[in-house]
Design brief:
The chain is α/β, with parallel strands linked by helices and 122 residues long. The chain is 32% helix and 16% strand. The protein has helices spanning 8-16, 52-60, 79-91, 103-110; strands at residues 3-6, 24-27, 44-46, 71-74, 97-100. A 5-stranded parallel sheet has the order 1-5-4-2-3. Helix 2 (52-60) packs parallel to helix 3. The longest helix is centred in the C-terminal third of the chain and has 13 residues, at 79-91. It is globular and about 35 Å long.
Length: 122
């Protein structure tokens, strides 16, 4: 199964477009990282990569996330989200998996600085 990569500009178009509800947006950063920068919206699913042992089997079994719905993975810079995307595509057998290149750091720098929380820096 291949993993698609999209730029933060393409990701912004998805977030702000009519198809946002048709995908599962998975942020694999740690919970404390969300206090520094976070996307707006209640539909963002936080599954920290460090806790993959806790949620991995549930994802593979279809208890968490819909295996028939596309997944878009993001993190701080793109590395952890690629690892998560690899898990979703190869181990959990999801068929439509996308990784956001550059992560939320690039998104904040290139697209929308409002994701940066007060007192945090890029």
């Amino acid at each position: 199964m291949s993993i698609k990569n999209i730029s933060v500009v393409e990701f912004a178009a998805l977030l702000n477009g009519p198809n946002r509800g048709s995908v599962q947006i998975v942020d694999v950063r740690e919970k404390q990282e969300l206090s520094e920068m976070a996307l707006h919206g209640e539909d963002i699913i936080n599954l920290p990569l460090s806790e993959n042992g806790a949620w991995g089997r549930q994802v593979a079994d279809g208890e968490i996330l819909d295996p028939n719905k596309p997944i878009v993975c993001m993190c701080k810079a793109g590395g952890r989200s690629l690892k998560a995307a690899t898990f979703f595509a190869h181990e959990a057998k999801f068929t439509d998996v996308t990784n956001v290149l550059g992560g939320i750091t690039a998104y904040a720098a290139e697209v929308d600085q409002s994701v940066v929380r007060t007192g945090s820096k890029l």
